[in-house]
Amino acid sequence: MASGFDRRVRLGVVGCADIARRRMLPAFAGVSEVDIVAVASRDSEKAGKLAADYGCEAVTGYEKLLGMDLDAVYVPLPAAHHAVWIERALRTGKHVLAEKPVTPSLEETADLVAQARECGLVLRENFLFPFHSQHHEVRRLVVGGAVGEVRSFEAAFTIPPRPSGDIRYRKDLAGGALLDVGVYPLKAAMLMLGPGLRVLGASLKVDSTYGVDVSGSVLLGAPGGVTAHLTFGMEHTYRANYTVWGSESHITVDRAYAPPVDLTPIVSLGGEEVVLEPDDQYTNAARSFVSAVRTGGPTSGESVELARLVDEVREAAR
């Protein structure tokens, strides 16, 4: 599809996952430059119920949706099913917003990013928190020297155990804590420390019942001798924060990854509170994707870089 078109983006949704229902469809509905055309599911009743909420077409089967006149698709399927449907969407000339991770595999992710670039299409991994203004403020403060020289970074994302039937415990669906919550601290380190990260060490605790990792810890190295310590898991109390430590001060962000849209964010700078305006990362992310589709925005290599770090974590943990 040619870039720079001036009509509304025609969007289809491949699957009726909870994240689509609760977060992304309401966000896309709030963006004036997009039309939600259709929602697909293998279950016609499920598709019908969700489609009715947005006045769009209900489609039974993902292949049928990809044959429709659409500009872009959103893929909120389990990670193990991403690669096949992302590739099919790209081959039909559609831009793709895929839930994280793009795929569970570095090789597959790199291949899909290369395909998107070759076709001039946008393939974006749906991390939402980077679109919240609190992280832009932290970057502004760090770049402005508010903490002095950055020495280290700490980040954590932990959640309580899920019900036993949750897909996060499904090895066949690429479940596990690393791909579900561990990628958030990794992405936060990329956001705050920049390129050139490498895994110095890692540990993963694998649950013998489910065969998936349920918690882990990672030590990263960054250029200039900066280090990052990351913690994640799904057998903990809830925790979602990060801290940038510098030579003169430090900055801490709580509620870092999924703050409610009406939350007044508070950034702690050396113990002093910096109160920010509420922000809606969900609508911001949806609007950014739609804008990239309309302008022919390039597909970045960040998804490949994250997949490389995930691969290194797995290797170090062995």
From TrEMBL:
Residues 10-126 form the Gfo/Idh/MocA-like oxidoreductase N-terminal domain. Residues 136-250 form the GFO/IDH/MocA-like oxidoreductase domain. It holds the Pfam family GFO_IDH_MocA. GO terms for molecular function: nucleotide binding; oxidoreductase activity. It comes from the Bacteria. SUPFAM superfamilies: Glyceraldehyde-3-phosphate dehydrogenase-like, C-terminal domain, NAD(P)-binding Rossmann-fold domains. Keywords: Oxidoreductase. Belongs to the Gfo/Idh/MocA family. This is Predicted dehydrogenase. It comes from Lentzea albida. The lineage of its organism: Bacteria, Bacillati, Actinomycetota, Actinomycetes, Pseudonocardiales.
